[in-house]
Write a structure and sequence with these properties.
By secondary structure, this protein is of the alpha/beta class. The protein has 2 domains: 2-220, Rossmann fold, CATH 3.40.50.300; 223-302, 2-Layer Sandwich (Alpha-Beta Plaits). It contains 11 helices and 13 strands. It has helices at residues 49-56, 78-81, 99-109, 115-124, 138-151, 168-184, 196-199, 220-223, 234-241, 265-273, 283-302; strands spanning 11-20, 23-33, 38-42, 64-69, 84-88, 156-160, 188-192, 205-210, 213-219, 228-233, 246-252, 255-260, 277-280. It has a 6-stranded mixed β-sheet, with helices on both faces. Helix 4 runs antiparallel to helix 5 (138-151). The radius of gyration is 22 Å and the shape is globular. Bound molecules: adenosine-5'-triphosphate (ATP). Residues 20, 23, 25, 43, 45-51 line the site of adenosine-5'-triphosphate.
Length: 303
């Protein structure tokens, strides 16, 4: 089964559109996910991330466009879906299931299930095995999903905001175990989260969705440190920013700052020479400013 994960790309999406009545939740989206990488599917509330994951896992049907998972359509395709694990916040379990029941039944669904790894993760997250699922705290319920997602070792694993309620220690355990296990058992992981800075170093690639459309599709490495903020006198900032893509502007009196989408080493040197202060922009700031600037543009256009 793992041989499937070596096929690149693992996922190809072309012109994917999903409408709910007159509302378009996913709007002509196209992207590839190359095999054996960790992807972040990021964006604001309601951007369309969960809908895309549901379409990719055959749990919802596209209005138009195509999806290929390991070279095949996921729709009602047991061969493909056997290789896919989808961890979502709204996961339902049978009414009277305990934590132990969930982990006993997991191997039926996942051919690569590693029971010993699951045991270690259960201890890491201090999960109470005999407790009913419906009695778990919010964080414990998320931990159950995280353990299943990791121990499934599915060639394609989706985590849709997997850690609602998980405390900072548990989230760090998740990132550490994911990276350690990934290096020994490479597979394709697609993760959606709002805690962008926390996962920034975990991700190989970032796809940002805004209002149902892809607004960024780039290697995380290329994004890290690509943008920058210049600050100084308003005249110097305005002069430097001219002709560049400005994501955000701020100012007070004669002082101003501008966040620029791209700032090369040469640009940084030129800014410093012009008496400007240059600071770096985190992945989270970049995405916040990018999605906020799209919204601002739309508001300006509709005004
Ligand atoms: N069954 C549905 N009927 C109508 N609208 C829907 C349906 N499912 C989703 N939507 C809408 O589609 C949009 C995208 O929703 P989706 O759940 O994919 O967003 P998301 O990016 O996962 O958001 P969040 O980060 O808040 O989880 C939202 O505006 C949502 O209200």
């Amino acid at each position: 089964m793992t041989t499937l994960s070596s096929i690149a790309p693992a996922v190809t999406v072309d012109g994917l559109t999903r409408r709910f009545g007159s509302f378009t939740a996913v709007d002509d989206v196209s992207f590839d996910v190359s095999g054996n990488h960790i992807y972040g599917l990021l964006g604001r509330n309601g951007a369309g991330k969960t809908t895309i994951m549901q379409l990719l896992t055959g749990q919802d049907f596209a209005t138009s466009g195509s999806i290929s998972i390991f070279g095949e359509s996921p729709v009602e395709n047991a061969d493909v879906l056997r290789n896919v694990c989808f961890i979502k916040e709204s996961q339902r379990y049978p009414e009277d299931f305990t934590v132990a029941h969930v982990f006993r039944s997991a191997p039926w669904f996942f051919g690569n299930w590693d029971a010993a790894f699951a045991e270690r993760l259960i201890a890491d997250f201090r999960l109470p095995m005999s407790r009913r699922i419906k009695k778990l705290s919010r964080g414990q319920l998320s931990a159950v999903g995280v353990v299943i997602g990791l121990a499934s070792r599915a060639p394609l694993t989706f985590f849709d905001e997997p850690y609602l309620g998980l405390d900072a220690v548990a989230r760090q355990v998740f990132y550490d175990r994911l990276l350690a296990d990934f290096s020994e058992n490479p597979r394709t992981v697609i993760l959606s989260t709002h805690l962008i800075d926390e996962v920034a170093n975990v991700l190989d690639h970032v796809i940002v969705i805004d209002d149902g459309r892809v607004i960024m599709d780039a290697e995380a490495e290329a994004l890290r440190g690509a943008a920058g903020t210049v600050s100084g006198t308003r005249a110097a900032v305005d002069h430097f920013a001219e002709g560049r893509t400005v994501l955000h502007r701020d100012g007070l009196g004669g002082l101003a700052s501008a966040t620029l989408e791209t700032l090369t080493a040469a640009d940084r040197a030129a800014a410093a020479a012009a008496g400007l202060e240059v600071s770096s922009v985190s992945l989270q700031q970049l995405i916040v400013q990018k999605t906020a600037s799209t919204t601002t543009r739309e508001l300006e256009q509709s005004a």
